[in-house]
Design a protein that fits this description.
Layout: H1 9-22, E1 27-43, E2 46-64, E3 67-73, H2 78-94, H3 119-122, H4 125-142, E4 146-165, E5 170-188, E6 191-201, H5 209-222, E7 232-238, H6 240-253, H7 256-260, E8 281-284, E9 305-310, E10 313-314, H8 321-326, E11 335-336, E12 345-346, E13 350-353, H9 360-367, E14 370-377, E15 389-400, E16 403-416, H10 417-422, E17 424-427, E18 432-434, E19 439-442, E20 445-453
Parallel strand pairs: 7-14, 13-19
Antiparallel strand pairs: 1-2, 1-4, 2-3, 4-5, 5-6, 7-20, 8-9, 8-13, 9-10, 11-12, 14-15, 15-16, 16-20, 17-20, 18-19
Length: 455
Amino acid sequence: MSELPSVELSPAAARAVEAALAAGASAAEAYAGRDTGREVRVHGGEVESLTAATQTGIGIRAWDGHRVGYAYGTDLSEAGVVALAARAAEMAAVADEDEFAAPPAPAEIEALPGLDSPSVAEWSAGRVAELALAVERAALAADSRVAGVETAVYADSTEQVAIASSTGIAASYESSNCFAYLQALAEGEGGRETGLGFGLGRGPEDLDPEAIGAEGAERAVAMIGAGKPASRSCPVVLDPTVAASFAGLIGGALSARAVQRGRSPFAGRLGEEIASTSFALHDDGRDPAGAASAPFDGEGVPRRRTALVEGGALRGYLYDTYTANRERTASTGSAARSGYRSLPSVSTSNLIVAAGELSTEDLLAEAGDGVFVTDVAGLHSGVNPVTGVFSVGASGRAIRDGALAEPLREFTIAGELVAMLRAVVAAGSETRWVPFGGSVSTPPLLVSELAISGT
């Protein structure tokens, strides 16, 4: 996608900074973005909907000493940018003073190639629709008990970003991402079950529709005849989709914003032993395979790899410039934006849970008798953000004599985040990128004991 005109965004950002300074701001920053996306939904062998949209705009932060104002818009003409910059400067002049409000300092930004795929532009709408239809067909062909597909979706996006600031930041990049997923429906034993299959990539050429469809079918069929487990405390193996949801929750609780507001069970625990040595977690904004990777964050600070949990100890929190200023430390390059309309705020990029040495079969064998959790519902609403105590609905399979047994549903798993991390006795050797909880790469995890509430 390198031929797309991100170069138009850089001059607009530079003009916006100059205009804000001319309007009286003591410092300024401009973030210009162009997002192009499309989505195809198919059902019953036909295309249900196909949507495509492009949006371009710019957001301008202006500082007046320690006061900050923000304005955004879609008019990148000279007059439009000047008007927006003036509005941002006016808002800064009347804002409340905040001693921690200050522009990010410039730092050398290292290029990060390979973030975009030419296949996004090369594949026509008809061709990506055929990919979505192939996902649906693969699920239906995988097993005679698959009665249908609830929905099958393909979506892609291309993002171009340029940032400039009066402190000397001037950088841009382009990236693309795509995914496909489906919910397969399986019938048997008087009931109907659903199963999710999904795949992620930079472009459609990275996706395997047969594998995505087969996964949804396999997950749906595996749940036929599910019942409730007996209530007890037992070993639990978390499938990567579930481990990713927990990792995302932990990553959010390790943001400096959550910690500084006292809404994190990890507040004030830097250097403490909070996990077993089998669990390690990093945030890596430069991982080539990560959907959230970029050379710099939402305010132009270089992305980096940050150790969060390592050697069993809490090694660090994630900071943007504002939260770093509050503690007189440095940003970890963890400012995120949902586009030009939003102000930057601290967030995870790509969360990486370290792999171990055991296969999934070995993890099940180690568990002996317990539960393999393949899905959780309402994880964020089911967790106390201060204490880390959680109780969430789940489904999965029984583990008996070290192997998968009957399907299970309508039970809860309960515990406390730090206690759970300390009880991780092994990580699997095979990792997977999962879009639940953000952008997460994780293996399955074996937890020695969690409370199961069923019958």
